[in-house]
Each structure stands twice: as C-alpha cells, then as structure tokens.
Amino acid sequence: MNQKWYEKSVVIGIFLIVFWPLGLLLMWLFAKWPTKNKWIVSGVFALIFILAILNRDAKSPDSTPTPTPVQIEQIKETARPTTKPTTKPKRELNTKVQLNNIAFKVFNNDTEDWTACVFEMNGGIIRGGYKYTTRIFTAGEDRTIPFREFTLGDGTRFDASETKPQKLSMSCKIGEERGFNYYDF
C-alpha cells in the first residue's frame, strides 16, 4: 500500500516540531504508532502548552519597582561603548549610559536635541528586543529610564527579576541624520 505524504511518520514528526497542532492531528489520524506512544506525545504537548500559559500569566507588567531618588543617585557607570558596531553609523551619539538593578541613566552629551529616539534592550539580529521610544531628548539632559518601560511589540514589559540587561542600542535623529550608539553590559 502506497502512503500519502502526510501519512508518513517522518512528515508527522516534522509537523509535530514545526506546527504541533497539525502534527498531533496527523499523528492521531494516520500514524501507525502504538496508542500509548500517541498519548505520551499528546501529554507532553499539553504540558508544554499549559506551562506556557501559566508562565505568561505569572508575569506581572509592573513587577519592577520604581527607582527612588537615592537609587538613581547610586547608579554606577558599568557600560562601555563597543568598539565594533555591526554597521557604520552615519553619526555616533555623544552619550554616556549608567545602570543599576532597575534603570538606565542616559546622558545626551550632544549640543543638539535628539528626536524620534528608539532605545532597544537585549535586541538581536533575528529577534527584536525590548523597546523604549521618546519623541525628544533635550541636549545636555540626563534621563532615568526604568527597565519596566521597555516593552516587546506585544506589550510584554521587561522584567529585571527574570532577565539581566545585556546590551542597549540607541537610534535618534539629530537634525536631518540618524545617530547611533551601542553598549554591552
């Protein structure tokens, strides 16, 4: 008997990894596996699904405390600009960044205001990180930005109790050009 492509165990296994709901359906309809094995695979996916929902619900968007003035003053400089930017910026932002366990303190050392700023924490090449945006960052200003103000595209807030800030990239308009800077912590 000639099996159709979607009835083959290899295809079912691939779908279990790539798109598990369809993989489970194909497994139950066409796999020639023992019923016990089908129940074990189904149970593993059900457990993963339940844990993912519980983990998502356990995260509180306001779990990071607001920094006090004393904590803000205790921020220590621990970030150094990297010497190897991934792309050559048109203009490097003249900035200094400090951090403590709940916030960044960003200094605009330029003589011009920054506009349309995007700060991205823990971003990567494949997936974006947590972002904080602001319309204007005045020349000479220093601003404390609590980690909880950084969010993913779906609104999930950064939780410093679960993840440490590892890098911060900045992109702002200065006049008609974009300025960039990047920090590793």
What does this protein look like?
The chain has four helices and nine strands, in the order ααααβββββββββ. The chain is of the alpha+beta class and 185 residues long. A hairpin with an 8-residue loop joins β5 and β6 (130-137). It has two domains: 5-58, no CATH class; 69-184, Immunoglobulin-like. It has helices at residues 9-18, 20-30, 35-58, 69-73; strands at 80-81, 91-92, 95-99, 103-108, 114-121, 130-137, 142-146, 167-174, 177-184. The longest helix is centred in the first third of the chain and has 24 residues, at 35-58. The mean pLDDT is 84. Strands 1, 2, 5, 6, 8 and 9 form a six-stranded mixed sheet that branches. A three-stranded antiparallel sheet has the order 3-4-7, with no helix packed on it. The protein is elongated. Helices cover 27% and strands 28% of the residues.
